Amino acid sequence: MEKRSDFLVIGSGIAGLSFALKAAQNGTVSIITKRAIRESATFYAQGGIASVISKEDTFDSHIKDTLYAGAGLCREDIVALVVKDGPARIHELIELGVKFSSRVNGHERELDLGREGGHSKRRIVHAEDLTGKAVEEALVASVETNPNIKVFENHIAIDLLSHAKFVGPTDEEGIWGAYALDKTTGEVNTFLAKATLLATGGAGKVYLYTSNPDIATGDGIAMAYRAGADIANMEFIQFHPTCLYHSKAKSFLISEALRGEGGVLRLKDNDPFMKRHHPMADLAPRDIVARAIDFELKKSGDDCVYLDMTSKPAGFLRDRFPNIHTKCLEFGIDMTKEPIPVVPAAHYTCGGVVTGADGLSTLKRLYVAGESACTGLHGANRLASNSLLESLVIAERASRHAGEVVKATKDAVPSIPAWEPGGAVVSDEAVVITQNWDEIRRFMWNYVGIVRSDKRLERAERRINLLKDEINDYYWDFKITNNLIELRNISTVAELIIKSARLRKESRGLHYNIDYPEKDDANFLKDTVLRLPHPTKA
After folding, report:
1. So what's the pLDDT on residue 535?
2. Helix (H/G/I), strand (E/B), else coil: 114
3. How far apart are CA 486 and CA 488, in angstroms?
4. CA 321, CA 342: separation in Å to the nearest integer?
5. pLDDT 10s digits, 101-131
6. CB 327 within 8 A of CB 252
7. What kind and span of H or E run contains 4?
8. Predicted confidence band of residue 335 (pLDDT cuts 50, 70, 90)
9. 511 in Cβ contact with 520 (< 8 Å)
């Protein structure tokens, strides 16, 4: 079935919904999302949004902290733009109804600002420890009452509609929407639009252990790559240092804000080890903390380290971190009385689809915002709580740019052929998908994780090449399902991470290779950019 709108948004997190609300002022908007509209990485974000709000803080300080964390690869113009636009975007969320945590200071009530690793000042705007939930619910409420926006839940995008592939090479080129599978009916719909935004989030599920929700399979990055867009810096995968270590916790995130409030990482023998690894100790940037934990665990053979919050009053912990406190209690851990067992887990994709300041990719009419994008803000390592900030700023700019493109698109969207299943049949071997999915996630964790080597990366490349051929054959022989689409995407993302990691013969930020333990500015002070040679054949 064909569905037309002026704008197509793929994804329903903070980037997608923010864009949709503003784009709706200039036309009709279709939002497709894999599950329910609220099911996004944004919903699970705990920490908050970094922004210069305090009189004791400055834009220059936030910029400096971001550049330091990014290890030389941040685009300084993008960093300045995002940081300086932050307060305006926070104000918009407050007007939208987001109730951020506040406190009384003298005779005035002000935002309660937290501090996280890598930040020199308190600048984290938060809603207790459920910031993402508060933001997502406010955005969803506005979207659901907007007559220009239509939401298609339980739809998973399959591929972008490339002009070159479906119409033919002309000056128009670019993207005209996407094919998407209606998971309820099994029908593939054709979503046509004059401007398309990818806001599908990151790719944490490519790893065995991740803090990400199950939807984080790198769909937007994989689709953009197959369509011919430039992809950059996929070697920089951020591993969050502290996820709850418990057999039933499914890598529940223990926010960095705990360390910002005085939490101390300790070994099993109570040793506060971080002071040996960095001058900022427990407030060091995430890449340093994750590697330090990885180092200590390999040295000791222990399963986890411990985050100790017991120096803080019990009432403060219950009030400041009600969600984390309650979740820990569910697993028999009282953070007010005992340390929390934690381990690193894949958390954030710092690379992605290359965009400019307005979110426009290297393909016409294709915009990208949020974790799917590589704007240049994060460089080789994302500073804590800069992600939601980036989503807000770039989505706002992309909506304005796309609005002008929609107005200027005089010709109607070209006719695109309906999805053709060919001779595909229903598979009776779903175990193939499960096996391949598990194998990719395990070798990515073991060979392309926190610490890498040339030998490990070579092994990973051999495995992904074999599996991609097998998955590709399966994709064309059998009718598509949600699991098959996601498997195809994580195999593509795994390939991009491995290729990028093999090209960077140094250690920088989140990419650490024991064969090249030092930074090499002479040869690698640049982005790693990949592009599919023949996208029309993908």
Report:
1. 72
2. strand
3. 5
4. 16
5. 999 888 889 999 999 889 999 999 999 989 9
6. yes
7. strand 2-10
8. very high
9. no
pLDDT for 171: 64
d(CA 48, CA 28): 31
Q: At what angle do helices 59-69 and 76-96 cross, to 10 degrees?
A: 120
CB 256, CB 45: distance < 8 Å: no
Task: Return contacts of 523-529, CB within 8 angstroms, 24+ apart.
Answer: 525/72, 525/73, 526/73, 527/73, 527/232, 527/233, 527/354, 527/374, 528/232, 528/233, 528/234, 528/235, 528/351, 528/500, 528/503, 528/504, 529/230, 529/231, 529/232, 529/354
Q: What average pLDDT does this structure show over 255-276?
A: 95
The amino acid sitting at 151 is: V
Structural domain including 367 reads 2-54+81-233+353-374+384-408
Helix H segments across 265-321? 286-300, 314-320
Whether residue 29 is found in the same domain as residue 173:
yes
Domain count of the chain?
Answer: 3
Please report, for the domain that includes residue 274, its CATH number: 3.90.700.10
Q: What pairs with residue 366 in β-bridges? A: 196
Question: What residue has token string 């175990």?
Answer: 431
Residues with catalytic roles: 286
Is the model's pLDDT at 538 over the cut of 60? no
pTM comes to 0.93
